[in-house]
UniProtKB/TrEMBL annotation:
Protein name as catalogued: RpiR family transcriptional regulator
Ranges of residues in domain SIS: 119-257
Coiled-coil region list: none
Recorded superkingdom: Bacteria
Domain HTH rpiR-type: 1-75
Keywords: DNA-binding, Transcription, Transcription regulation
Record InterPro entries: Homeodomain-like_sf, HTH_RpiR, RpiR-like, RpiR-like_SIS, SIS_dom, SIS_dom_sf, WH-like_DNA-bd_sf
Biological processes annotated in GO: carbohydrate derivative metabolic process
An example Gene Ontology molecular-function term: DNA binding
Any one Pfam family match given in the protein's UniProt record, by short name: HTH_6
Amino acid sequence: MTKKFNWDLETLTKNQQKIADYIEKNVSRLPYLTELDMAEELKISIASVSRFWKAVGYKNLKDFKLSLIRSNPISPANKMKHTIDEVETEDLPGSMLERGIQYLRETGSELSRVDFHKAVEAVYQARRVYIFAPGPSEGLGNLLQFRLSRFGFAVHMMAKSGHELYEALMHLSERDTVLIFGFVNMLPETDVLLQHAKEAGYKTILITDCLVSEMNANADIVLYALRGQVWEFHSMVAPTMLVESLVIGVGMRSKESALGKLEKLNKLRKRYAAHIPK
């Protein structure tokens, strides 16, 4: 039988060999297990499980899981399965609400207020705002575009992939701001947007769930939003809060102009109510 890991059995105690065997047999389950789960199934102490990770070259269980995920990406189906298994079925909304509150709290503790205010200013000062929102972040990009456009800002959604992205790149200048949603991994398009900023001079704002990454290092402004662990179904609660906070922040920064635009919108609705009812 082919082993998935290269264990140095001579350096491992009997309990550690037992844990190694358990891992070999339960690789697909491992991202969803805790040390307590493993200890109970193996009939050994949690302390024994905790000591195992350093014995095989890792800081802890989380470090081992992240290494496993990097080498074997978890499918969307498994992420969803993990969430379904974890939530309280008798009170699903309550269980998901608790998770959302946890994500918001952790986002609040990690989010730089200085960078947030820089992001507000970068949007406010921009001649044009471009939004790159691929995949599941597309809805957040559309929400941001809708809200900022109401305030009178020139906001453009960028192509999510392919050669169409060049059509936007050719127009970008130092007077523009590009807001990028970059979750988990850096896409080739994200890399191009961040690299081209060095030449064209536009500001980049990155909304991400990564605390450390190449994206973060290359962006002008980084705004963090927790979506859950890598092996979990990813929530958009915290990123949505961040988008709404940006909208309110920009509205406050351009208060007179923004309120004027909204008042104009209200007058138009009243004027043409008979033609276009709500």
